[in-house]
Amino acid sequence: MKAYFSIVVFVVLLASSVISGMGNYIDARGRIVSELNRALVRALAEKGNEWVTADTIRVCRELQSASATPVAMLLHDKYFSESLSIPELRDKSYISFAVLDDGRESTDVWHDAAGVSGDTVLMKSGLARNVNVAVAFRANADCSFATVFSLSDQKLPFTLCFMAVLWAMFTLRYKRTGRAVEVLNQGHCCVGNLRLDVASRTFYNMENEEVRFTPMQLELMEMFFKSEGHKLDKSEICQMLWPGKDDASETLYTLIRRLKRVVEQNTNLQIEGERGRAYRLIIKSGYSD
């Protein structure tokens, strides 16, 4: 497998995950905006005239005169909240409104609000029309990124991200195995400070001194070196070394016991048993490869 191909597949999967995730997040945010607009229009049709009173307009105009800028006020209304079809928004939503004097229709009256905001709706009916003002309304939801994200459909992005991670793990494992095969093909292989010369079937330590094994020990050490993860099942060893023997457990135990002594005396390796079913060649604790 070419390295660039592995990288391209990983990048494509990860980029697809990010792009689809962002797209679904934007869609969820759009649904929130639409829901805020719908609930606001419904609330205005039902209770708009109750909100726009003479006192409300007077207070807003006094605040605007004092600040010389449009002033937006906040309104928490139960009817508006209950009109929202998305339950997660009901405790986080409110209405902001501002009075625009002299027929001015500019809606540039809002300060940046946290979360998600709907569109501006102008109301000119009733009392507002009589005093020549317009009242601008906007619905807001104090939603964090996490809230919007939780409302978006992220199944596909998570699946693609998981596939990218699996692909990366597979690629690393494949490359590691491939490098081991490549090393063997080049004529030598190392585990810890023990090196195998494949052509001569000879083991050397870090001082380049030959480590001598009996023929059976040599066969088993070669099997350890060439196996994935340097791990061998007991059944695998018995089938390879004593194919015609019904039960070679005791013979294997004796071979492993004697081989351990040679390995530990001459290298920084040791043979470790795994629950009586397998053996693994590992570097001794406290040593580095």
From TrEMBL:
SUPFAM superfamilies: C-terminal effector domain of the bipartite response regulators. Residues 181-283 bind DNA. Gene3D superfamilies: Winged helix-like DNA-binding domain superfamily/Winged helix DNA-binding domain. SMART domains: Trans_reg_C. GO terms for molecular function: DNA binding. GO terms for biological process: phosphorelay signal transduction system; regulation of DNA-templated transcription. Keywords: DNA-binding. Residues 181-283 form the OmpR/PhoB-type domain. Pfam families: Trans_reg_C (PF00486). This is Winged helix-turn-helix transcriptional regulator.
